[in-house]
Specification:
GO biological process, one term: L-threonine catabolic process
Strand order of the largest sheet: 4-5-13-10-11-12
Number of strands: 13
Number of helices: 14
CATH topology of one domain: Rossmann fold
GO molecular function: L-serine ammonia-lyase activity; pyridoxal phosphate binding; threonine deaminase activity
Cofactor: pyridoxal 5'-phosphate
Helix content: 25-40%
Distance between the termini: 64 Å
Largest sheet: 6 strands, mixed
CATH architecture of one domain: 3-Layer(aba) Sandwich
Protein name: Threonine synthase
Radius of gyration: 20 Å
CATH class of one domain: Alpha Beta
Structural class: alpha/beta
InterPro entries: Ser/Thr_Dehydratase (IPR050147), Ser/Thr_deHydtase_PyrdxlP-BS (IPR000634), TrpB-like_PALP (IPR001926), TrpB-like_PALP_sf (IPR036052)
């Protein structure tokens, strides 16, 4: 394993990576760091194509030392699909969709769960607990079951029903709260504090290894494009782990010398009903203030106070990117238009990225001829209420 230590991006303090850790003493999430010079000596980009088509093909850049602790359901290596019909309609000839709906449990959250659970198992964790808006809880409950770990999951009562059922099916201790993810987080904090160390907090960015699973989306995009980077990557942003992870992957690839010095411009997409990152980015602030009365049809990005706000904003600015808030009505319209033209039903969070792409192209921020990658973070089938079938005729038998 080439993992060397954990680093605090806020205060710079280094931490050993040989035991379970949550936040730095200063309150910041921790980032896993690797001996990239040593990695470059043992593997080249050409080698990855000879390995199995899953995220573990990048094992030198992942934090699990002993393969006996690897917990997998075949996650990763999702398709990067061209969308020529919809792309032509909105003026982006090279529009591509990275479809994370094909991962186990139906969302990109399986990537973080695979690495997070594997590393937790390796470090001796027996039970994890986490707040979630739905998909992350389903993924972590599923992978915890496969690894033989206990799992307590707390989610808002309005979270997608399928996610609740996935947790119950996986044998998790599921608890529902009449509130938002922040309310669920407070319940998890109380549980962990009262457990005398028996329960590990695996909430978003509260441990450093979920991020390592999410960063593999960045590796895959670059490899699938022949070790070239796109011009723009558009990501639905709630907790922001996926966007932070992609940015981290691109930084590591640059340090390895496997891509050039010009990174893709990253775009964080939020709903107008919950847009703390967009507001902070527009104001030039380094931290985001909590969003009051958060609500959106894209439930996965309903995160009023993301813990990783500093890292999200830093990634946007370092890449020359931007942050966009879109209306729920436009999300649902673009979801249907895309499905009718391309035959792929996106989750509402993924559809929000289409809305952002359309608006950014219309405004000239995305230029003609640029290659744009949109992340569809989950299977549209997990959100059946986004497609209205009330007007469909019923015929007599």
């Amino acid at each position: 394993m080439y993992l060397t230590h954990l680093e605090c991006p806020r205060c710079g303090r280094e931490h050993d990576a040989d035991k379970p850790r949550n936040l730095c003493d200063c309150g910041s999430p921790l980032l896993a760091r690797y001996d990239l010079a040593a990695v470059a000596e043992v593997v080249t980009p050409e080698r990855f194509g000879l390995r199995p088509a899953d995220l573990w093909r990048y094992r030198e850049l992942l934090p699990v030392a002993d393969p006996r602790h690897v917990t997998t359901l075949g996650e990763g290596w999702t398709p990067l699909l061209r969308a020529p019909a919809y792309g032509a309609e909105i003026g982006i000839a090279e529009l591509l969709v990275k479809d994370e709906g094909l991962t186990p449990t139906g969302s990109f959250k399986a990537r973080g769960a695979a690495i997070g659970v594997s590393r937790a198992r390796e470090l001796g964790v027996a039970r994890i607990a986490m707040p979630t808006n739905g998909n992350a809880g389903a993924a972590w409950a599923t992978y915890a079951a496969r690894a033989g770990l206990g799992a307590t999951v707390v989610m808002p009562v309005d979270a997608p029903g399928i996610c609740r059922r996935e947790c119950v099916a996986a044998g998790a201790d599921l608890r529902l709260v009449d509130g938002l993810i922040g309310d669920a987080g407070r319940l998890v904090a109380e549980l962990v504090a009262g457990s005398a160390g028996a329960v590990f907090d695996a909430g978003t960015l509260r441990e450093p290894y979920r991020l390592e699973g999410k960063k593999t989306m960045g590796y895959e995009i670059v490899e699938q494009l022949g070790w070239q980077v796109p011009d723009v990557i558009i990501y639905p942003t709630g907790g922001g782990v996926g966007l932070i992870g992609i940015h981290k992957a691109l930084q590591e690839l640059q340090e390895l010398g496997w891509i050039g010095d010009r990174p893709p411009r990253l775009v964080a997409v939020q709903s107008t009903g919950c847009a703390p990152i967009v507001r902070a980015f527009a104001a030039g602030e380094e931290r985001a203030q909590p969003w009051a009365d958060a609500h959106t049809v894209a439930f996965g990005i309903t995160v009023p106070a993301p813990l990783g706000d500093e890292l999200i904003l830093a990634a946007l600015r370092a890449s020359g990117g931007t942050a966009v808030a879109v209306e729920d009505a436009e999300i649902l319209t673009d979801l249907r238009d895309f499905a009718a033209r391309e035959g792929l039903l996106l989750c509402p969070e993924g559809a929000a990225c289409l809305t952002a792409a359309r608006q950014l192209r219309a405004g000239g921020w995305i230029r003609a001829g640029e290659r744009v990658v949109v992340l569809n973070t989950g299977a549209g089938l997990k959100y059946p209420e986004t497609v209205d079938v009330a007007g469909v005729p019923v015929l007599p038998s």
